[in-house]
Amino acid sequence: GSNATSSSAAAPGAVAPPSNPVSAATADDLTNIDPQFDEAFEAVAFHTSNNETAKQALTTMKKLIVNATTKGQTGEEETSAKFRRVRLSNPKIKAAITDVHGALDLMMSVGFVLSENAEDGETYLVFPPGSTGPSWLPR
Fold this sequence. Notes:
mainly alpha; globular
């Protein structure tokens, strides 16, 4: 006997699921966001008294995270390492991360670790080589 449900044509009016979704992040990925990230994000986005400061902080962090998980993972170690290292005393970083409540926590929630550099006495946020960060980050 023939089985009508094996037909590959969608029923009239039905919408077939997209064959290749635009984003790699699925609804499941987005529900798996780390509570630490969520809390830190809210602190930056909603508890920073100045909207421009919050916007600058989020923009800066996004760029640093994207660079660390992409450029920081490819090519020669000497070149890629600079994309995984953020000096906290850098004036732009200080204004966007060090001085913004929740920003440091947000960076650490995606995989950055605080590291003291014995040579220059500076504190850095360092992203581990070989890491792509949390599963919900776009690839």
